[in-house]
Amino acid sequence: MSLDASRIEPRPERLPAHEARQRLEHARNTRITQLRALDESGQADDQLMSAQKAAIERVLKEIDEAFARVEDGTYGACLGCGKPVPGERLEILPYTRYCVACQRRAAA
Ligand SMILES: [Zn+2]
Questions:
Q1: Can you tell me the distance from the alpha carbon of 56 to that of 26, in angstroms, rounded to the nearest whole number?
Q2: What is the CA radius of gyration of the chain?
Q3: How far is the CA of 18 from the centre of ligand 1 (A)?
Q4: Ligand 1 centroid to 64 CA: how many Å?
């Protein structure tokens, strides 16, 4: 435990880079484990399985892109409107590119 109690700064908007990386790392490991499980199931040729695999690979690519945004300092900003993506959304989807409003617009 390395809690630095002397610096409690409420920062709801910007996630520190190391924390963003940690979350992305975790998200990536989860997906890699899922991919491995799919491969080991020996049903990778199955249509449903390969669709699932493609979906996971797509997320892995998004995670990679998110890592790149951490590096260039744009992580956490919505690619649609440029506003910060709310922290609670990043907690669920650390690799997301859009805020809720822009995501909805993109999906519509
Ligand atoms: Zn937005």
A1: 14
A2: 16
A3: 23
A4: 20
